[in-house]
Specification:
The chain is α/β, with parallel strands linked by helices. It has helices at residues 19-26, 30-67, 76-84, 112-122, 150-159; strands spanning 10-11, 14-15, 100-105, 126-132, 137-138, 141-145, 164-167, 175-179, 207-208. The chain has five helices and nine strands, in the order E-E-H-H-H-E-H-E-E-E-H-E-E-E.
Length: 224
């Protein structure tokens, strides 16, 4: 009688689990895999939404800052104004008699405007107003004129070493000289450079505390 083949799926009375059956036991159901994918998509969408909301809030805050003046954006007009603020024209030194100058004292030193005006007169300059003034400019002296008075302003600057030129909207050729804290007097007549040259505009070493106050106007005409 032939011997019955041994059943390899049974060992000592216990059923042996095959490899395919074992792998099938640990395979995730399709629903579990699908749920994990949906969770990852939701997390990704949430991150993207938070980033978009952050950009939106930042844009709104930036717009409010611009509207409130906390952030100033440059405009083409401002760029052109800055580019043309200091004339590139070469000016000749004018005869002082052709220059009308107004002298203002922005310091606490009494009599400063009058003494400077007397010096200008001694050099044959025409002297107009002499008085007090308040200004945000800090330096030696601010020389202010309209476009028509630039040559006259150049002549005045050569007599006031270290001064800075500012242009305002006046239509005549008059020039204002605003004496400030670092002013120590006019150049000696024999040392005044009378060769052609350029106007000297504010340099980085000059401190302008409030540009909105320039060009300035006299606050009173009492003499100092």
């Amino acid at each position: 009688m032939a011997k019955k083949p041994k059943d390899v799926t049974v060992l000592h009375g216990h059923r042996v689990i095959t490899g395919p059956e074992l792998r099938a036991t640990f395979v995730e159901p399709d629903d579990a895999v699908s749920n994990r994918r949906r969770l990852r998509r939701r997390i990704l969408h949430g991150v993207v939404l938070v980033l978009l909301l952050s950009l939106l809030v930042a844009g709104i805050l930036g717009a409010l800052a611009v509207m409130n003046g906390q952030i100033k954006l440059p405009t083409p007009d401002e760029g052109q104004a800055k580019a043309s603020a200091c004339p590139a024209t070469t000016f000749d030194y004018l005869p002082p008699a052709k220059v009308k100058v107004n002298v203002f004292n922005a310091t606490s030193r009494a009599g400063l405007a009058r003494s400077a005006a007397d010096e200008f007169k001694a050099r044959k300059f025409g002297v107009g107003k002499v008085g007090n003034i308040e200004t945000g400019y800090r330096g030696v002296a601010a020389v202010v004129s309209g476009a028509a008075g630039q040559a006259a302003a150049f002549t005045v600057q050569r007599n006031v070493p270290g001064s800075d030129y500012f242009q305002d909207g006046r239509s005549d050729a008059s020039v204002d000289v605003i004496l400030t804290g670092d002013y120590r007097g006019l150049a000696k007549p024999e040392l005044v450079d009378q060769t052609p040259g350029l106007l000297s505009c504010p340099r980085e070493s000059r401190r302008i505390t409030d540009e909105a106050q320039l060009p300035v106007t006299p606050t009173q005409t009492a003499k100092r």
